[in-house]
Amino acid sequence: MRAMNQTLADFATGANQIIDQQLPRLSLTEVLFAERARLKRIIAGMGLSAADGEDILQDVAVRTLHQSGPFESREDGVRWLIKVTINRCLMEHRRRGSFQRQAHEILERRPDGQAASKATDEKAVVAEELELVRESLGQLDRSLLAPMVLQYFCGLDSAEVGRILGLNPSTVRGRLREGRMILARRLLERGVEP
Fold first, then answer.
1. Which of 157, 154, 153, 149 is nearest to 179 (CA)?
2. End-to-end CA distance of the chain
3. Which of 73-82, 94-103, 122-131, 153-162 has the lowest mean pLDDT?
4. How far is CA 141 from CA 7, 14, 127, 145, 179, in A?
5. Architecture of domain 112-194
């Protein structure tokens, strides 16, 4: 029995060495450069300007250099980078305490073809409603805001958002629903009709 256990242990060790030699280990720096556009979208979705985004990406790159060891898969590396980026964005918002102003700038940059063709008074109503949406988004709890940004600004599904935030997809869907309900209630209270 003892010889059999030793044989199995030797086999497992040998198999792990062969697997380690055959699987290419990914450099996190390579993954960072490949995913740069996605990280920029996340930063913009979190309400930060392009200049702030570059600063955050530099901080993420420094964290990448200090990260010990390569990741087993590209997905693990991407997930780690997105978590670090989101945390760095949240830290920046906490430092500034100005998410409402930043969210306003993001929504200002979004093209609104319908508003361009409306009369001046209709444009004023649309601008006022957008401001109410911005304020309401700024009042959301961060646990609800992060899933909403990842899904609606970055186009990720609930499974991807869950992997990034370390949540079950059902929890993500629940937080998205709760965030939408809170947002809708606040907008209805302020007179914005769907």
1. 149
2. 72
3. 94-103
4. 55, 50, 24, 6, 8
5. Orthogonal Bundle (1.10)
